[in-house]
Amino acid sequence: MQHSPPEVFQCAMSHSPGVGIGTRERIKVKVEVLYFKGCPNHEPAVEQVRKALRNEGLPILVNEVEITDPAMAQEVGFLGSPSIRIDGIDVEPGAREINTFGFGCRTYSDDAGRRSGLPPVGLIQRAARESRSA
User: Fold this and answer.
1) Is it the case that residue 23 has pLDDT exceeding 90?
2) CATH class of 30-133
């Protein structure tokens, strides 16, 4: 089954706090939360992403991508639910080289090394900064 790639949102920066205030500059930011239906961390992860983007002064548009089956998980490189990508790059540096994809739950490490089903806001913010400087 072929799945079309998620769209890229163009966002005006002039309404966002921080970067781009008072400009008409437009940037392309592709922020995705990949999840499977029924994942208890899907909605909280979307809120974490929005909070991180707000903290970074970026547009708060999040493309939620439902992974519907194991074949799609393989096709899009799904590391588990929820997975967060900014401009196509996973927010967790240690996960970027993983090539074992599947249809399951995902956990993230916080700064103290504890595992959680939600990525820390700081991890998302660092990924957003990396994306802007790339």
Assistant:
1) no
2) alpha beta
